[in-house]
Design a protein that fits this description.
Layout (H helix, E strand, L loop, with lengths): L8 H21 L7 H11 L9 H10 L2 H14 L12
Length: 94
């Protein structure tokens, strides 16, 4: 089987977006409403995938689905502090 090549990061993002969406839904079911698909993408791009050789779509999807709740929430809450935003009682960002 040949490797799939993507013309842009946007194309790659769109390819794995269903996994990102699924993870966001999983977090919402646990009451974590402030994590977005982009947050997961950015966190993994910077902290995991950048350091990985031979990255494949299946590995990316697996990493998304295996992402620990505390890892992504810590990352997002740190971003929120830096951006001087707040979270309402319902979990939405202001």
């Amino acid at each position: 089987m040949s490797d799939i090549e993507f013309k842009s990061l946007e194309e790659l993002y769109n390819r794995i977006k269903p996994a990102l969406y699924s993870k966001v839904l999983e977090l919402k079911r646990k009451g974590i409403d402030y994590v977005k698909e982009e947050d997961i993408w950015n966190y993994l791009s910077i902290n995991v995938w950048k350091k990985t050789d031979q990255l494949t779509i299946s590995l990316m999807v697996s990493t998304i689905m295996d992402l620990k709740e505390d890892e992504i929430t810590s990352y997002v809450l740190d971003l929120i502090k830096k951006q001087d935003r707040t979270i309402t009682n319902e979990g939405a960002l202001l």
